Amino acid sequence: MTLNAYLIPGMSAGKESFEALTFPDHCATKVIPWLLPESNEPLSEYTKRMLVEVNTHEPFVLIGVSFGGIIAQEALKFLKPRALILISTVKSDHEKPSWMRWAYKLKVHKLLPYYIAGYLAHKPLRVLPDHWQKRWKQYDYYLPMRHPEYLSWGVDQVLKWNGTASIKDIPVFHIHGDCDDLFPLENIKDAQVIPGGPHIMILTHAKAVSKLLARICQGF
Q1: Which long-range contacts (CB under 8 A, 24 or more apart) does 192-198 make?
Q2: Is 72 helix (H, G, I), strand (E, B) or coil?
Q3: Structural domains of the chain sorted by starting position, each given as residue range(s) with its CATH number in brackets
Q4: Residue 116 scores a pLDDT above 90
Q5: What is the DSSP letter of 108?
Q6: Could you say which DSSP state residue 55 is in?
Q7: Best CA proximity match to 63, nearest among 144, 4, 141
Q8: What's the Rg (C-alpha) of the chain?
Q9: Could you give the angle at which helices 148-160 and 98-106 cross, rounded to 10 degrees?
Q10: Which residue, of 37, 39, 85, 208, has the fewest CB within 10 Å?
Q11: Cα separation of 60 and 79, whole Å?
Q12: Strand runs labelled E in 69-213
């Protein structure tokens, strides 16, 4: 029986971020693209719009990375997947680093110039060093969603998210790297650890992540 695996990428990321991962033959994968949020749109309503394509008449799992993991957890308010697979993300406000809680209280993120991200889509100047040009191209490739309204809204949602109590009777699998600099492992509970895995380990440690995904998905 085919198992539909809906992949929700990290903030600003697209289908390209999953290219290095492999899945079992019985899994049919679909990457869910980011949408522009509506004015003052609550996270729950945004999640419903984003996951409208999920086929609930066939068995499926949700796989969320970073901010996509938060979206996947919000989706449990109206969807019942066979399992929830979280990668490089958090399950509650307690798993966030303390600086995020302070940033939200002080509203520091409201001062960030998100519009600058749009300019990074342009080709780098030739006068820049080669290693910077390489990084610029990678940023342009792996993070295609850089609209300032989306970024401003998304950062605000991550900082103020407290978790959800909707994870009941649904198996949850959390995969996390022990070198994650955004969400340090020391704050994470009940995770399967990828040694040396950074926050972007679906790119840097794809084989190790794929091995765990295959093991998890075989059970469904």
Answers
A1: 197/88
A2: helix
A3: 3-96+162-217 (3.40.50.1820)
A4: no
A5: G
A6: -
A7: 4
A8: 17
A9: 120
A10: 39
A11: 10
A12: 83-87, 172-177, 192-194
Report pLDDT for 44.
96
Whether the Cβ atoms of residue 51 and residue 79 lie closer than 8 Å to each other: yes
Judge contact between 13 and 36, C-beta under 8 A. Answer: no
Closest alpha carbon to 44 in 76, 13, 21: 76
**3-state class of 211 per DSSP?**
helix
Q: Give the residue among 51, 65, 59 at the shortest CA–CA distance from 21.
A: 65
- Overall average pLDDT of the 99-126 stretch: 64
Residue with tokens 């955004």: 182
Amino acid at position 212, single letter: L
Dist. CA 91–CA 94, nearest whole Å: 8
Other residues' Cβ atoms within 10 Å of the Cβ of residue 122: 9
- 102 phi/psi in degrees, rounded to 5: -70, -40
